[in-house]
Amino acid sequence: NNYMKYLYDRKITKSSISRKLSSIRGLYNYLVREDIIKENHFNKIQNPKRELYLPKFLKDEELDKIFSVCNSNNPTEERDTLIIELLYATGVRVSELVNIKIKDIDFSEREIKIMGKGSKERFVFYNKECAIVLDSYLKECRSKLLNGKDSEYLFINHLGDKLTDRGIRLIIDKIVKKSCIKSKVSPHTFRHTFATMLLNEGCNIKSVQELLGHSSLGTTGIYTHLTNDEVRLAYMKAHPRA
Question: Which of 11, 29, 71, 88 has the largest CB neighbor count within 10 A?
Fold first, then answer.
C-alpha cells in the first residue's frame, strides 16, 4: 500500500503503474519458485483500472481547412490530395494505405481490397469526390512520378518508388501546417474522424467494425464515447429545459 501511494503521489499514469506491478509480480513469483520467499504479496494488489482513452478526431471546420489547401497544381500535390481523400473516405491505417496496389481497386464499384493486421482481408469504399481525384492521379500524374520505373503500388514517391509510412506522415504534416489548424494530426486522426463521422450519421457499430478491420467490437466501441458526447451536446443545445 505504501508503494502504491508513492506511485500515485508521483502522478505516474495508471498504465505505467500496471507495468511496474507486473514486473514486480514476475520477480517475486520467481523468488517464490526458488524458495527464497514463501509468498508473493504483490499478487494481492490489483492493477488500477485502465484510463479511458478517447481518440482525437477532426471537426468539420478543421477538415474544411485541410481540404481547402489541397490542390492539383503538379503530380506531387495531386498525389498528396488523393492521400487525404482516401484516408478520410476509407479510414484505413497508414500501413494499409501504402500497400494498396492498382489491382486491389475495383473502379466500377469504388471498392478497395485491403490487407489488414494479421493478414486479414477486408473491403473499403470511396466516394465520388475521391474517385475524381483518383482517376486524375492515375491518368496524368502517377506515370510522371514513376519517371520510367514500374510499380504495382498506388502511391509513389519522388524517386519513383513505393511511398513509405514515414513519407505519408511527412506529407500530412506539411498539409496540416499549411492549413494553419492548431490540432495535432496524424494519419490515424483521419481514421478516428472516419469512425466518429459514420457513427454520428447513424451507421451501426458492427458495420464500422468491419470497415475499420477491428477484430474486437470492443475496440470499435471506444468511438461510441465520442458520439455519445456529440448527442449530449446536441440535446443540451436543442432541448428547451436542458
Answer: 88
